[in-house]
Amino acid sequence: MKRIFEKLLILISCVALTACNINEEFFAPKIILDNETGIYTVKYGREIVVKPSYEHAEKATYCWTMEGEVLGISPSLSFSQQEVGEYFITLKVTTEYGSDEEEIRIDVVELEIPTVSIAGNKKVTVTVGAEVLLNATVRETFLPAKFAWTVNDVIVSNEHNYTFVAKEIGNYIVKATAKNDDGSHSDMVEVEVLNADDIPFTWEFEKYAYHTVVGRKLVIKPLPSYEHNVDYSWNVEEIDELTGSDSYFVFLADEAGSYHINAVATTSDDDNQISMTRTFVVTVYGEKDFYRPKNGASQADWNKVFEYTPAPGQFINELKTGGFDAYHTNPEAAITYAEGRLSEGKWISLGGFGGYLVVGFDHSIDNNRSYNLGVVGNAFDGSSEPGIVWVMQDENGNGYPDDTWYELAGSETGKFETYRDYAVTYYRPSGIGMPVQWTDNYGNSGEIDYLAQYHNQDYYYPLWIGMDSYTLTGTRLEARNYDQSGNGSYWIQPHYDWGYADNFSPSDFNSENKANLFRISNAIDFEGNPINLSHIDFVKVQCAVNSKSGWLGELSTEVCGFYDYSLKR
What we know:
Elements lengths: L1 H22 L6 E3 L6 E5 L3 E4 L2 E3 L5 E6 L2 E4 L4 E4 L4 E11 L2 E12 L5 E4 L4 E5 L3 E9 L6 E6 L2 E4 L3 E5 L4 E11 L2 E12 L14 E5 L4 E3 L9 E7 L2 E6 L4 E3 L5 E12 L4 E13 L18 E6 L21 H13 L4 E2 L6 E11 L6 E4 L10 E6 L13 E3 L10 E9 L8 E5 L4 E4 L20 E8 L5 E2 L7 E2 L16 E2 L4 E4 L4 E2 L10 E9 L14 E2 L1 E4 L5
Parallel strand pairs: 2-9, 11-17, 18-24
Antiparallel strand pairs: 1-4, 3-7, 5-6, 5-8, 8-9, 10-12, 12-15, 13-14, 13-16, 16-17, 19-22, 20-21, 20-23, 23-24, 25-27, 26-41, 27-40, 28-38, 28-42, 29-30, 29-40, 30-39, 31-32, 31-34, 32-33, 35-36, 37-38
């Protein structure tokens, strides 16, 4: 009886166990990514670990593959690449009950290393005790960065502006460095400090052959240099009474012909004396020698762009509204760009202060003492970006604007706040997406802001300017722009009374075609005196303000056309 009972219990247990196995469910594995989007980001050269979690993955096998190559067979993946790009990786998990698969994307991005740029020359020679004003710009990153100036590896400042002064002669390395967790970047200036008597004297000129017109003053000026205890002597072989004792010379002849000028600069100290001799040739023509009268085939509008040299600005190199493309990388291509824009009546930006455009006509434009010239811009009430207009005669008859420019006076001429011979030097940024730094000949410095939210081309510095810096010189008007809102949201750029391009003038602005009208009779010479030009052959418009209006960016003259007003009246 007892044995029968034991067999009965075993039978019941087996039936119960069989019933349990019949009701149990088995599931395929499931991948749960640790990033819901499946997109991961890592900087190149750095490692990222992807750690999914799993369900029903007992005794599972794992396989991570990319383009058919197995990267790993563990539940997690360590990934690193040296090249920026998008990498697509497949994860497959398999058990005896099935498998699951997910594709992830790993974006390998650039390091966020700050970039530093110091405005100005990289090699400077000064005297003991002289100040060197240095300004550094740092391209910011999302990572916090530390900044420091060092002089011969000794930290001297943490501000972006630094004034270097040396009390002893010697060579100094002044370095600006910014660093964050991704790395560091530096820019530096080599400063040579000498006694005043030891600084080498240079006396060079842009050219040594000039030409002018009978009865017109011509100024011959040297390139900027350091002067200390220098005596000058000038004489003209053909005009005994015409002499000079300054570093520059004013020439004037009453007759046409060739004139030879001799100039000597002498510098001396306690031990020796050094003399430099320079010779010049000036060819003098009659004013009407190369006059080109208009005829029945003459066109009112410009017929050739000779030069387009803008200052840096938000529309320079800009592919959309600016109309540039990747091929505008030399001066010839820049001229082609400008001619194409003007032919279609589209605006051309001159960038910040000093940027200019030079055009010519198929005839000489006569000075009839009334309005002679029209320059089309895009000004409107509250938005004037004035440009100085310059005119030139083809004095030597070669068909090129290589003669003397004369400014057309305007309402601001002669005022205390108007600067003639104002010069701004612009410096190529050290990296993409950076503002363009500038310095002027009054010791000031600043930036053309980079406005990434509106114009995100790599550089605002013209691509066809091969030098790392260039200087633009002209007449600067006092800026009048102001923030009417008080919070930076609404800027006003008021007009000037008369005499400027791209200016909503109450007296010389034509609202129908947005042109300003000009008189050749307003031409003045380098001394600011009126000069009586019978005609002109070339016209230059140059941005005349150095300012910016918050989020609108730099004030920049725009031009859309030029014409002989006498042929359009």
